[in-house]
Amino acid sequence: MAEGKTLTERLDALYEFDRAPVTESKLHGPAKFMGLYAGEHVAGTEFIIGPLFVTHGVTATDMFLGLFLGNLLAVLSWAFVCAPIAVNTRLNMYWQARKIAGPGVTFVYNIVNALMFCFLAGSMISVAATAIGLPFGMQMPTLQDMYPNSVQWVVVVFLVGSVVTVLAILGFEKISEFGQIAAPWMFLVFVAAAIAVLPMLGVHSLGDFWTAANEKIWTGVPISGQSKFTIWHVMFFAWFANLAMHLGMADMSILRYAKKWQYGFFSAFGMYLGHYIAWLASGILCAAALGNIAPGPIAYLGAGVAGAICVVIAGWTTSNPTIYRAGLALQTVTPDWSRWKVTLAVGVITTIAAMFPALMMKLLDFVALYGLLLMPMGAVIFADFWLLPRLGLQRNFAEAKRLLFSWPAGLAWLVTLALAFDIPLQIYFKSLPGWFIAVIVFIIATYVEQNIWQKQQAPKLKKRPKSVEIIAWSFIALSIIRLTAFLVIFVYNHTYLSRSLYFIIGITVLLFQIILGVLLLLGQNWSRIVLLWLMPISLAFVLFTSNIKIIAIPDIIWTIIFADYFTRSAAVTYFKSRN
Amino acid sequence: MLTILKIFSLIGLLLTIVPAFLVFSGTIIIESHYTLMLIGTVVWFLSAPFWMLRKKAN
User: Fold this and answer.
1) Domain span at residue A281?
2) How far apart are alpha carbons A276 and A50 in whole angstroms?
3) B55 contacts in A (CB within 8 Å)?
4) What is the pTM of this model?
């Protein structure tokens, strides 16, 4: 438990500045979100994603329509799923998940997130290396290269990785600022490079574009060894490219500063500039480079030295904060290490990963996997916020019960991944059923958890009141007395009913009452309810069937006492707490 | 001073994007576009940080 506390403290310390909900004075207007999304989604990886669609044989119609619809779904996910919860809670994803699942689960989430960050940063370093290697005539990795293809590649990646790591150790704020300055220029380089190479594809007027798009760029024929992509692939990839951010709720950290939940719609600036125009532009560059997909050479073809600089800056500015954040997250595992040591370790892992071109060449698969791995926690937050209160279950259970580890969220995560990997669908589509699986598993598991918790806690919370004990024992004793009275009446034949009927009814009712008395002692609420109905009926039975009415007087008194006490709130609360 | 810097930044961005359209229309060759883009890049990065970071600090 001491270890658990240490862990919790370590985790909390990382997010200390975000602990409290954002105050009214810190909220931002629309311009901030437009700029933020536009800047964040024009990154180094855009140079590789567009060309990968070309190699997968997407048709022009599928590309334009699929990206439009997929990005629309992404914007709607930000606006209708992530933003309302962010604006309501004003907390970031870490604190919201911690309230629901406890620090134990968020700890595991942090580790997975950090490793994914390492690989993501690795792909960005690979992208930057293709530009740095240009003046040295480096042999560029091809689509089929899974392992380092030359010594030169290894050396260049090592150099780029080292510089990025050292800068991340020195602090990422300045580089982050530099990234923001570069963003508008970077977007224009994408557009300019694509426009400049259009004549190489036979496009000399706007009227030529659609023909060239179908015949020379998005031809519908995949490159050998690549699977064929349809509109569904394009749409789902565009939707889930930032799955961890919208349905995965990581962007709660941004949108909690929004004045209104409708600001989630401003994600459209990132989606349609970065994931629409930039992906189309890099696809055009790939076609102009005759299918070459290495970002450095294709950017150079379209924009010369400025293009190569753009690739380096795009890769560098996005990998840098990613390494820094990964280091931050991993610091929870290595509390004795200083920040620079952790960042160095992360930089080494990232640089080694970047040496394998597979990371860059299989980026579409990796991005889909990244989203799938982190999405279940977002589904848990969604279910906890919107669905649990409507189902009569308690929100933020871990926080309410001070749990280190609330298992429903962990179970939902594991079951979702196990089932999602088993679903016979390509990786790009698994997250959709996965999200529903996570929601359903979490709700069922929460129901079970909260019921078990109630039953376990009830005896501690509600000890059997002494009065219940006295009345229950008295009831059993009186039932025995009544049984005796019944036998007296039976023996002397003072009844209007036939002897056999009187005997059967009397013995059944009285024995049943004794059993119910025992169950009262055990705290069974249903026995209380049955007795509240049965006692007056039993009394009426005695009054109407016996000639010796006086014998019913104790029963009348007793029934009144019983009915009065067992309908009092103290008794009702006790019995309900036991069930 | 800030206004001048902003004008320079705008020129930098224009030098980045406009030459591409000139290549498309056949007015200039792609090598000239490369050179103009590089000049635009230099102008942007020499001017934009001064007013963008200042705006952020405010």
Assistant:
1) 2-453
2) 9
3) none
4) 0.76
